[in-house]
Amino acid sequence: MKWAHQEFVSRIGMPTTFYRKSFIYRLKRARFSLRSSARYAHDGDPNKSNMITTRDANESDLPAIIEIYNQSIPAGRSTADTAPISVSDRIEWFRKFDPTKRPIWVAEEDGRVIGCVYLSWFYAGRPAYNKTAEISTYLANDYQGKGIGTMLKQKMIEACPRLGVENLVSMYFDHNEATQKLNDKFGFKVVGHLPEIAEVQGVKRGLTISLLKIEPDK
Q1: b/e string for 8-42 if b means 16 or more Cβ within 10 A?
Q2: Closest CA relative to residue 141, chosen from 70, 51, 38
Q3: pTM as predicted
Q4: Mean pLDDT, to the nearest integer, of 199-203?
Q5: Residue of 118, 117, 115 whose CA lies nearest to 141
Q6: Distance of CA 78 to the CA centre of its chain
Q7: DSSP 41-73
Q8: In terms of DSSP bridges, do strands 53-56 and 112-121 run parallel, antiparallel, or are they unpaired?
Q9: For the domain with range 3-213, which CATH number is right: 3.40.50.970, 3.90.1170.50, 3.40.630.30, 3.40.50.2300?
């Protein structure tokens, strides 16, 4: 669904140097703010907090993943799909993930899948782009605004060195302020903008392309 976007991105001149100190500072700041982000209080009662856990997704999680994805469609900010998709639409898509290179993780609370984060092969997985991946995050509507999306993105960024990822791409509609703020927190740099290339709910929208250079493990 995004290959047309990715082909254009490959022709955009991207900065080759990013400030390492800025990235480290932002990541430390994010870690500090997330010391308790894996917990949240139900009904405002801090004594009723549950732990959010993450794990590799399996095929039996696909109905929950698709349900969460479909919840994002009506808002018109997170996906270019305009109608709900089915589980059968995404079976082959799901089977292309690889826990050792391009994983898909789910977040759970009390056995309920409440979100997912995943890395996709960039530009149809052509070998020259093997060290570049695109990151995507989706949360159930009733779990948004609780720091869980930030936690999931942080975990995936931290895993990138062992996954062989040096360049992390985030592509999102230019009116998606939540993703923009989250990317700013982690040090993503805007490297491209495709104005008015999509029509969402009758309004023309642009696509923002951001890039995070991953520091290798020492």
Answers
A1: ebeeeeeeeebeeeebeebbeebeeebeebbebee
A2: 70
A3: 0.78
A4: 93
A5: 115
A6: 10
A7: EETTEEEEEEE-EEEE--GGGHHHHHHHHHHTT
A8: unpaired
A9: 3.40.630.30
